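Thread: Newbie trying to understand structure tokens

Hi all, I'm a second-year student working on a class project, and my supervisor (Dr. K.) asked me to get a predicted structure for one chain before our next meeting. I've only ever worked with sequences, so writing a 3D structure as a token string is new to me. If someone could post the tokens and maybe explain what I'm looking at, I'd be very grateful. Here's the chain:
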Amino acid sequence: MIANLSQREKLFLGIGALAVLAVILWLGVLSPYRTGIEAAEARIQSRERQLEEIRLLQREYRRLQQELALAERRLVTSARGFSLFSFVEDVTNRTGVRENLVSMRPQSPQTLGEFREESVEIRLDRIRLDQLVRLLHAMEGADLHVNTKNLRIRTRFDDRSLLDTTLIVSYMQKAT
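---
Reply by user tm_fold:
Sure, no problem. This is what the structure looks like when written as tokens:
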């Protein structure tokens, strides 16, 4: 059958066969290979980004572990003989707001895992803003883990420069 073809027809048939072979080679081998390489490179870049995120999270985790260990050491060393009432009285005396202290009411202690949280609600009337800021700064700046959990501030109707405040101060310690 091919022997009956002229030289020109054999040439066209050979060129056509080479073209079909080239298309099959391109579509069947080279194009999927390139697509696979591109997909693999994209996965590699994605995994590298994930690895970098994991490294950042690992550093953050280690930093938080160190902070937790430091906080636990501070809790253990400062818990012996500590009284939240005495601390609040001392801070109010030092900041000059003792005469504004209306009440100190203890809250029921809460146990959170191996820690116990003690809280005191403090009510101050007719206090100036600068006095309140000094009081809060003295409480938060102490070496102890005393936190202001809640703070309500209301201006007085009779004198707008004075405030009535209620704050809840808490202290964490190891449960015994």
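A couple of things are worth pointing out once you decode it. The chain has two domains: 1-80, 81-174. The chain has three helices and five strands. Feel free to ask follow-ups in this thread.
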